């Protein structure tokens, strides 16, 4: 673990940490405690957990003079690291009213001071600091989607992040680009930062395929709805059909109509309620919905290998920065994958079952936190992230 102390490293640390508080700046203390479902976490918990990560994995083992802010935080803000010890159950994070938001801010300041001292002294382990910063960027995206889900339950529809800037999209596109297939290499092969699940780089055989040059749009999804697709069982996987029936799915999450007589759709987002942008990529759909849509459209979802092999082709647009793109690939380890030793080895490997891979990045993904080899993953029923799709076909 080589240490590093370049001013650029200090700036990177300060910028990432400041962005978390920037996202939360419009939220009251009451807002930061809310947990709307078991999949989501309170904003206060995100702010504390990302701080706990630096304290637990960098400062405690590498800064002998560091004073732990509060020993009880080891339990409260551990997420899923069994090797670290017991933790607050995930569905009960909203019960943590103490420490207060002000105390969490003090915690962040305490850890930041120690981290900056360690970095400046050249004693901070580069790999763990980089992992911690990328980990915080992941939680920044979760902070956006979690508080959006929570505020969507409020009949007053307040804007959780009124300063959120949604990217602009333009009409057009919709063609399929052909790729010859053959033996391709996927996975991360460089020395720059990447998560362990992106490795090792390996070869995959692909048959010839076609992939859409843009994402599926909201206007496309309206046609899917109008054609009765949410009531057509033959379009759906059995589990997906059962989930759609049980959840009374009739449109993407966060879509709503102003009243029963209104045919125009609205969409709730971090910036509040807004008219549905017909030319924007559809978001907040589950894998089950994406798969059903692809079948309805006479197409399919691309595999993650197809997506990555095509991702650098200039003929394809909207690969990042709008919505995470569901693929047809289950989340499994690459050939030869080995998780890291110790607690950080729990970061990805133990989740490689019963989930589906998404590629790209979303409008909630922080700048600089995407790359063609990035493997995101969620269970196929999840809808609260900015998740959408592009279509693929066999040649």
Could you give a quick summary of the protein structure above?
This protein has nine helices and twelve strands. It has 395 residues and is α+β, with helices and mostly antiparallel strands. A hairpin with a 7-residue loop joins strand 5 and strand 6.
Structure description:
- With 395 residues, the protein is an alpha+beta fold.
- The protein folds into 2 domains: 7-151; 176-394, Alpha-Beta Complex (paralog of FGE (formylglycine-generating enzyme)), CATH 3.90.1580.
- 31% of the residues lie in helices and 13% in strands.
- The chain contains 9 helices and 12 strands.
- Strands 10-9-8-11 form a 4-stranded mixed sheet.
- β5 (255-257) and β6 (265-269) form a beta hairpin.
- α1 runs parallel beside α5 (126-151), α2 runs parallel beside α4 and α2 runs antiparallel to α5 (126-151).
- The radius of gyration is 22 Å and the shape is globular.
- It starts with 6 loop residues before the first helix and ends with a strand.
What does the secondary structure layout of this molecule look like, with pairings?
Layout: H1 7-23, H2 43-62, H3 73-76, H4 101-120, H5 126-151, E1 176-179, E2 182-186, E3 202-206, E4 209-212, H6 218-226, H7 238-247, E5 255-257, E6 265-269, E7 272-275, H8 287-296, H9 304-310, E8 324-330, E9 356-360, E10 376-378, E11 387-388, E12 392-394
Parallel strand pairs: 8-11
Antiparallel strand pairs: 1-4, 2-3, 4-12, 5-6, 6-7, 8-9, 9-10
Helix pairs in contact: 1-4, 1-5, 2-4, 2-5
